[in-house]
Amino acid sequence: MNNLGYYNGKIGLINEISVPITDRAFYFGDGVYDAVMCRNNIPYLLAEHIERLYHNCQLLGIVPPICKQELSLTIKELVKKVEGEEKFVYFHISRGSGIRCHSFNKCEGNLCIMIKPQSLDDVYEKMNTVLREDIRYELCNIKTLNLLPSVLTAQMASEKNCEEAILHRNGIVTECSHSNVSILKSRVLITAPCDKYILPGVTRAHLIMVARENGIQVEERKYTTSELLDADEIIITSSSKMARGVKTIDGKPVGGKDEGTLAVLRDTLYINYLNETNK
Ligand code: PLP
Question: What one-character DSSP code corresponds to residue 254?
């Protein structure tokens, strides 16, 4: 198959799978999602992403229709049906179905999966970005389907021919529209703490791990837009980007002052991905 859509056990091409309009994902964005890269039919770091998805379900009182092990097996079987060496696997669990009503009864959620061919970003290509106000609400630690502010800020970046929007709240850097951001200063990796203003990214966690393994000090603390603009390097992380440097913010050159440390972090994350997804 060229791509695959799955909804509560139904399988077909993405464009052919239909979802009932009573699904709360449709009119409330009432659900949580996650996504992984997949290479050689090995979904990368799947267990960590499934763990986060079920933790998010628990935080919101959403009842998953299947257990973690079943979801893992389902995804591993489904990826084999789609052609291509590298794929992107998206999966979400909505709160379930019912006539539109804000409050809810606890019922089983609906599982939706989409798989499409997609290559990992070119990790060696530094990114052009914009800096924008973080207009999201206060549940950014939960990967919910409510992504309107992220959609709008991603569009602002795209209209400036940039790949990402770096976000700040009153001058404090949080994350990006669909990735985390960290900085290097004097060989210290500085990254926003895991609070309600950022998603605890799986790639961010691996970046921190790799930094410590390589003797690079890590500070999980709030940092300002001035520190961002003055950083030796800026690193954007996500499952589909891995770790990429930043070359401009709003058209002005940034970073480029510690290519060596950036290379250690970026290359180790990339090599780990290649090694773990070898046939
Ligand atoms: N932050 C936001 C807002 C995201 O949407 C994402 C990924 O989708 C990330 C961070 C990166 O998370 P991960 O590294 O787990 O892909």
Answer: -
